[in-house]
User: What shape does this take?
Amino acid sequence: MSCGQSNFGKLLRNRYRVLRLLGEGGFSRTYATEDVDRLNAPCVIKQFFPQFQGTGQRTKAAEFFKEEAFRLYELGENHTQIPRLLAYFEQGTSLYLVQEFIQGKTLLQEVQQQIYGEQQIWELLADLLPVLEFIHAHNVIHRDIKPENIIRRASDEKPVLIDFGGAKQVTQTSIGRQATVIYTLGYAPTEQMAGFACHGSDLYALGVTCVRLLTQCLPLQDASGQINDPIYDAMSAKWLWRERLQKKVLLSATN
Assistant: This one.
């Protein structure tokens, strides 16, 4: 059996009840589920679901998916602001990973409701920079930091970094070699878009996330795939976020 609309309410692996679709990416689908062996405790299942047919692409995507499971296990067991891996298995023709459910709102949901102030940004950085320091110390680059991949946990209001599907394990042999290009337009620096992501790429993406929270300006993609970004001038490669600050958002003179 595989996850899917026709299987909502049914059990996967005789244990996980599929409730609803949460999101869909290039090679996976994410579902809200319940663990019936743990008193219907909520969890999240990510199903390997590539949207392309080529065997080579599918094999590469499957490798990324398995690597994500390893990253979650290694990192989530040792940091409270990274979801824990609860299970990883194969059933039918699909791969699945089960991860901890984080109750709360994403920063994307938050910024759609209100603009951040300077103090909120400082607090966010104080909470998230140690998380980046932790994953970088484990030679991992997240490669997809953006508001929708950060959840503010309802229980303690701590930001939790999610979606390690694009994370890269950095080794001495990979530092100088061009990697598979994974990024989100409007957040990634040029070296990452060229395939040379580094630890600084995550810091750049976090910085971009912060200015978007301050301005409430998000990159928008039109029907033709073109990105309209109100705070970045691609022709001059300049950020215009200060010009888009609303009058009620005041920054200290030193920033």
